[in-house]
Amino acid sequence: MAKLDRAKEYIGFLKAIFVLLVAIDSSLIAWLFKHSSLNAHSFLVIIGIGISSITIILLVKYILKKIVELEDIE
Q1: Domain chopping of the chain, boundaries
Q2: Confidence band of 74 (pLDDT split at 50, 70, 90)
Q3: 72 CA to centre of own chain
């Protein structure tokens, strides 16, 4: 039972990181729309959006993999 609880807490922690990354990604996108002129800051924001979006996708895949592994623990 302890393994199951630990795995659930770990998934909850990963979900909190996911929410944080989504907030960062959406705020960067909002900043980009507000400051639509292309300059060095815009390119850095675009790179940040790309990195956070890729991280979100990889994190979702990892969370889903961990959820499937929960079936084996029970």
Answers
A1: 2-73
A2: low
A3: 25
Q: Which residue has the higher pLDDT, 40 or 23?
A: 23
pTM: 0.80
CA 1 to chain centre: 28
Distances (CA, A) of 54 to 15, 17, 23, 33: 16, 14, 14, 20
C-beta separation of 8 from 70 below 8 A: yes
The tokens describing 9, both together, are 């807490």
Write down how long the chain is.
74
Q: How many CA atoms lie within 13 A of 18 on its CB side?
A: 15
